[in-house]
Design brief:
Blueprint (H helix, E strand, L loop, with lengths): L1 E7 L1 H4 L6 H12 L3 E8 L3 H14 L2 E5 L10 H9 L4 E2 L1 H13 L13 E2 L3 E4 L8 E6 L2 E6 L3 H20 L2 E9 L4 H7 L1 H4 L5 E7 L2 E10 L2 H19 L3 E4 L4 H12 L3 E5 L5 H7 L8 E6 L3 H6 L11 H14 L4 E8 L8 E8 L7 E7 L1 H21 L2
Parallel strand pairs: 1-2, 1-3, 3-8, 13-14, 13-15
Antiparallel strand pairs: 4-5, 6-7, 7-8, 9-11, 9-12, 10-11, 15-16, 16-17
Helix pairs in contact: 2-6, 3-4, 10-14
The structure holds adenosine-5'-triphosphate and magnesium ion.
The site of adenosine-5'-triphosphate has 20 residues, from strand 1, helix 1 and helix 2.
Length: about 400
């Protein structure tokens, strides 16, 4: 089943709003076993919209539109669909009553323009929209479908999940499941080499993506039954895990910070951080993990001499070095009364673009279990990369604790 998305709205073409509807629908289609072949944006111009819809209707089995269902003259999606189908829009009495009672509840008078939101064409049935005034349209003819959804994501998304998604899933007769394995420490090229037999498979497919938290391996399987797809994924996953071993640190929605949080909680340990050039982003990543209060004692952004002295770094005026970073980690561990202290220090120059340097130290208070490292990277990504470095090494330290 070939699908196509049309997002309408002149605001989109002007770059005033971002087309997040297409991204949302595309990601839903991908899990519903429906192949998306085209996605386009068109302004609120009848002729151009009609031309595009005609083309979509010819080449795709399912056409999904978003936007243009409002009450104003610029909202023309219904008119364009009626034009394509050569059918007449007529007021549907029960839709009209729904609309009128909506305005009564809002204690306001229904503007004349809203009446077109209660219209249908003979090939269309209304798709309920509990969050707004405009119902969507499900238009079916000659084995093909046009689905017209409103523009506001707060209305469109729940309509997708409650009405459209389930109907389309049934229609497609297939389901797509995927699993992401997250790795760290093996280069993209090496990973490509190690996974060659998997990368050429067609179902399940395997693909690799370089991300800020390492390289992701995504396995995708398509089957008629959800269970079958699940089994196909599990089989490939186990084989890939055998090849990659413990360089895989997590799956799907797992993040390094959530993993570290989980490991700390399981071990009844706490953490405190001192950071400089990352400006609190390491602390923020940890604080955003749910339940972080039980393991995260706090953090200090220490960029100046007095701030660093709070943590007992008396070499503050000297150059950043592993020695001062270790002192900060030990200082924050004791001052914040935590089991583990982490310091992330460094410097970068965004103007010259020269490679930046990050230093980090993990102080566990246990001899032999501390980790420190110097790390260099492009200045633009130095902060995000070094945070991942710290978290990955925290995981490493925690594995032995
Ligand atoms: P309304 O009844 O609010 O006019 P509508 O169905 O006519 O809804 P539009 O007029 O096209 O939709 O857009 C209304 C608002 O919905 C936009 O201002 C924007 O905030 C949001 N919106 C529209 N299209 C998109 C899109 N493709 N991605 C994200 N947001 C969108
Ligand atoms: Mg509108």
């Amino acid at each position: 089943m070939k699908a196509e998305i049309i997002a309408s709205g002149t605001e989109l073409l002007l770059g005033e709003i971002k087309d997040t509807n297409t991204a949302f629908i595309a990601s839903r289609l991908a899990t519903q076993g429906i192949d998306l072949h085209f996605a386009s944006i068109v302004g609120d111009n009848y002729q151009r919209y009609l031309e595009l819809l005609k083309q979509a209707w010819k080449r795709s089995d399912v056409v999904i539109t978003t936007g243009g269902l409002g009450p104003t003259k610029g909202d023309i999606t219904r008119e364009v669909i009626a034009g394509l189908m050569n059918e007449e829009m007529q007021v549907d009495e029960s839709l009209k009553q729904n609309l009128e009672s909506y305005f009564i509840r809002q204690k306001s008078k229904m503007p004349e323009g809203n009446l077109k939101q209660a219209t249908l064409i003979p090939s269309a049935v209304a798709v309920p929209n509990p969050r707004g005034t405009a119902p969507g349209w499900w238009v079916e003819k000659s084995g093909k479908v046009i689905i017209a959804l409103p523009g506001p994501p707060g209305e469109m998304q729940p309509m997708w999940d409650s009405e459209i998604g389930p109907k389309l899933e049934k229609r497609s007769g297939a389901i797509i499941l995927s699993r992401t394995l997250k790795s760290w420490g093996i280069s993209e090229g090496k990973l490509d080499e190690m996974l060659t037999p998997f990368l050429s498979g067609s179902n399940p497919t395997t693909a690799i993506y370089a991300k800020i938290d390492g390289i992701h391996v995504r396995i995708t399987a398509k089957a008629v039954e959800r269970r079958t797809a699940g089994q196909m994924i599990l089989k490939a996953e186990n084989e890939i895990l055998k090849v990659l071993g413990d360089s895989v640190w997590g799956k799907d929605e797992e993040t390094l910070e959530s993993l570290v949080g989980k490991m700390l909680t399981e071990r009844g340990l706490t953490l405190a951080v001192a950071e400089s050039f990352s400006g609190g982003l390491l602390a923020s990543a940890l604080a955003n993990v749910s339940g972080s209060r039980s393991f995260f004692n706090g953090g200090l952004v220490a960029t100046s001499e007095p701030a660093r002295e709070i943590l007992g770094d008396h070499h503050a005026s000297s150059e950043t070095s592993l020695e001062t970073t270790r002192a900060l980690a030990a200082g924050v561990r004791t001052r914040f009364n935590a089991s583990i202290g982490v310091a992330l220090d460094g410097s970068r120059d965004l103007e010259t673009g020269q490679t930046g340097k990050a230093f980090f130290a993990i102080d566990t208070g246990i001899p032999g279990k501390n980790i420190d490292q110097v790390y260099q990277w492009r200045p633009q990504q130095l902060v995000s990369r070094s945070i991942m470095y710290v978290l990955f090494n925290l995981r490493k330290a925690l594995l032995t604790m």
